[in-house]
Amino acid sequence: MALSALAIGLSACNGLPSYGSRHPATTQGNSMFNLWQGSMTLGLAIGIFVWGLILYSVFKFRKKGNSIPSQTQYHVPLEITYTVIPILIVIGLFYFTIQSEHKVDKIVPNPAVKVTVTAFQWGWKFNYPKQNITIATTNPGSRPTLVIPTKVPVRINLVSSDVIHSFYVPKFLFKRQAIPGVKNTFDFNATKPGTYLGECSEFCGLHHDNMLFYVKAITPAAFKVWLASNHGKATA
Amino acid sequence: MTVTEERSTIGSHEPSHHEGPTGLLKWLTSTDHKVIGLSYIVTSLILFAISGVLAELIRTQLLFPDNHFVSQHFYNELFTMHGSIMMYLFVGPFAFGLGNYIVPLQIGAPDMSFPRLNALSYWLYLFGSIITVSGFFTAGGAADFGWYAYAPLSNSPFSPGMGENLWYVGIGIAGLGTILTAVNFVATVYTLRAPGMTMWRMPIFTWNMFVTSILALLVFPVLTAAFALNLADRVLGAHVFTVSGGGIPVMYQHLFWFFGHPEVYIAALPYFGIVTEILPVFSRRPVFGYKGLVLATLAIAGLSMGVWAHHMFTTGVVLLPFFSALSYLIAVPTGIKFFNWIGTMWGGQLTFEPPMLFAIGFLLVFLWGGITGVMLASPPLDFGTNATYFVVSHFHYVLIATTVFAGFGGVYYWYPKMTGRFLHHGLGKAQFWILFIGMNVTFLPQDILGSMGMPRRYAHYYPGQHFTLLNQISTVGAYIISISMILFIINFWVSWKKPILSGPDPWLGHTLEWATTSPPPPKNFTSLPPIYSDSPLWDFRLKEMKEKGEGLPR
Predict the structure, then answer these.
(1) For residue B262, what are the CA distances in angstroms to B187, B212, B312?
(2) Which of B156, B243, B353, B378 to mutate against chain A (most A CBs within 10 Å)?
(3) Is A47 within 8 Å of B339 when comparing Cβ atoms?
């Protein structure tokens, strides 16, 4: 079962493997996913080169005879080369990181829907202030569902009412801490309808691993209907 | 025949050799850096074993989905204490133990600068450790808020109990020991170097212990202060980190990681040093690019003070590009070191006794920890992987490479110096291979688990998440690692019962610790070879070999 998941995970998407990552369900996630694929591929290429050099040295230079090996300690051009090349590589990685970061952290002026997410020991409260809808964890272990429209930007205002938690949706490749005294704001655009598991990913005490929720993305038309039928409701 | 042997004869006639107490009383009262060094090493290895058992319990809990091998509460204690013992009570003290024994020898000094302070440091460490671990014997159990104890979870309303208070006090006391021993290392390196031993001729291990000590002096007081403030919140009703009293919880994260990231290098630089001692000796070559390597170490130390907030990318309250750029940059000096290490082996005459195997194992394992670390320097990638098993795998690749591969490499390398005996080669090689296999079987699956989205610090996962098989492979790997550790204990026992004598310089060492007897006499040296480079003893050997025209021995 896990193997099949792995096989799905490793299947090619844009030519590069996913390296086990989930395929993202948001436009922001797509940007991070491409960066992940690129960085992992580059990292593995560098790794294979350096592992190769190490293993080559180990096999090539094992002791033969008793001649005293060269005692050369410095080779300045070589030392400059192996300093400059890594600097160029990290400058390149930094450039792509900043590109992606601008997309991921972009806050639009007029999101289609705003939700205030309150994390608490041990559950979540999703409040749609405009529509006066509240969905929350009621009994320990129940999993509330955050309902959102696809395609359009969704604004999350994230707060905590006790300790530090973290709002994490693996399918979005995204998490943000919920910190007492801090209001964190982020947007995302779900690409397709679906229900995705969400988790608390900052250790928050005894039932940390039971602080789960769902994100249900539905079409904007269906979302309108859902809003209308739930207006003013506080449900679990 | 050689200078060393002449000296060892003289050494054995040292009148002070048989003075003073022996046995337990010697251990209790000694201010000799060698006795204190061994005390540190043995104590830290015992704590390493305890913490290892906790890790095996964690892996056993994760063997099946929705498993109930341990309770949720006890699971939280397990990973808190596993991380705390390893990070606060093992990685640093183990390095300071090896440093205590070796640094004075490498610079030709008779002892540390402040021998009594050195003894005090050890006793603070020992009692701090006992206090920390004693939380397990309180009614509420040991601390269970994670090894970085984020406020306000760590405050008394959320984490009441004596185990937590013992945790703060114990680690605070052990941390004071670390601060004092760091003072001692800096003073020793500045003031007790033998004539001719300039800073630019110091062995890399000594250099790295020196830089590590400076880092410890910069950041351990910050940790102590953060813990003191948190303890004030807990027991005095202060509100430094609580919103209700006007405090700022996120401030604790800043203070903690301002300590925490340099701490990673405190846990790495000494072990880089060990590897840089072993590779030249078993390659019969000097360290390649010595000066560049030292500059890279200094660059790492400097940069490590400015990267702490990459642990806080997901808080939403730090300047992402700044901390990302510095975190990327710190990969450069670390990358340089790899080329120094490869360049040292390049064109050498390599042999593969256990210390060398562990050093090569370090290179192979640490590289993967480094590559995954560079990925975590990117905020968008960190948003996905932070607090998942991807990070768990990353830092275990780093820390097992340094403290376990390089650390055991150092034990196999210097054991003959400390005891005059070898550890058994065959058992050592077996330990290496089993560790190497077990390590990768444990932590490579965790990379994939993290990429799939399995959060760390979860006691349960569920069948539908497809985490089962990878977790089971990982747990089997953890059991394999424990076999390699049992082999080390067997090796220690066998080598103790059937001694294989090593003589003063069994590896043809490059540095001064090999120019005295094994174990060295009190005050260490009766005479020293002339020091013209970073490998004075090797210079002497080379000259001797060239004069005889016989090439390398054996």
Answers:
(1) 21, 9, 15
(2) B378
(3) no
CA dihedral for A144, A18, B325, B389, sign (positive or negative) = positive
Give backbone dihedrals phi and psi of B475, rounded to 5 degrees, phi first: -65, -40
> Region B40-57: what's the mean pLDDT?
97
Q: What's the Cα-to-Cα distance from A182 to each of A121, A211, B75, rounded to whole Å? A: 17, 20, 30
Amino acid identity of A107? I
The domain in which residue B535 lies consists of 36-548
Q: A163: number of CA atoms within 13 Å, CB side?
A: 24
Tokens of B554: 């054996």
Q: What share of chain A is helix, strand, coil (3-state, %, to 5)?
A: 40, 30, 35
Look over chain B and give the mean of its residue pLDDT values, rounded to a whole number: 93
Instruction: Please answer yes or no on whether A20 and B320 come within 8 Å at the CB atom.
Output: no
Sheet containing A212-218: order of strands: A145-149, A212-218, A194-200, A165-169, A174-178
User: Which residues 149-208 of A have a C-beta within 8 angstroms of B?
Assistant: 158, 162-164, 166, 168, 170-171, 173-177, 179-182, 184-186, 197, 199-208
Q: Which long-range contacts (CB under 8 A, 24 or more apart) does A80-87 make?
A: A82/B335, A82/B336, A82/B339, A83/B292, A83/B332, A83/B336, A86/B331, A86/B332, A86/B335, A86/B336, A87/B329, A87/B332
pLDDT at B9: 38
Assess if residue B30 is contained within a domain.
no
Domain CATH code at residue B197 = 1.20.210.10
Low-confidence ranges of chain A (pLDDT < 70): 1-14, 236
Which pLDDT score is estimated for B554? Answer: 65
Q: Which two tokens stand for residue A50?
A: 């350096």
B-chain residues within 8 Å CB-CB of A197?
A: 465
User: Is residue B242 situated within a structural domain?
Assistant: yes
Cα separation of B346 and B18, whole Å? Answer: 46
Q: Is A231 helix (H, G, I), strand (E, B) or coil?
A: coil
β partners of residue A117 = A126, A158
Q: What per-residue confidence (pLDDT) applies to B19?
A: 61
Q: Which of A9, A97, A174 sits opposite B384 (nearest CB)?
A: A174
Whether residue B85 has pLDDT greater than 90: yes
Q: How confident is the model at residue B141 (pLDDT cuts 50, 70, 90)?
A: very high
Residues of A in contact with B392 (CB under 8 A): none
d(CA B485, CA B472): 20
The answer to whether the CB atoms of B152 and A163 lie below 8 A apart is yes
Q: 3-class DSSP state for residue A217?
A: strand
Separation between Cα atoms, residue A158 and residue A3, nearest integer Å: 36
Q: Residues 42..101 of A with a Cβ closer than 8 Å to B: which?
A: 43-44, 46-47, 50-51, 53-54, 57-58, 61-75, 78-79, 82-83, 86-87, 90, 93-94, 97-98, 100-101
Following DSSP, what letter does each residue of B349-378 receive, concatenated? -B---HHHHHHHHHHHHHHHHHHHHHHHTS
Residues in chain B within 8 Å Cβ distance of A32 = 380-381, 383-384
Measured between beta carbons, the chain A residues lying within 8 angstroms of B332 are 83, 86-87, 90
Q: What is the pTM of this model?
A: 0.94
**Between chains, do A20 and B448 touch, taking CB under 8 Å as contact?**
yes
Strand ordering across the sheet containing A133-136: A184-188, A154-160, A113-120, A123-128, A133-136, A234-235
If one counts the domains in chain B, the total is: 1
Within a domain: B347:
yes
Task: Give dist(CA B315, CA B383) in Å, integer.
Answer: 10
CA distance A146 to A115: 9
CA B111 to CA B31: how far, in whole Å? 9
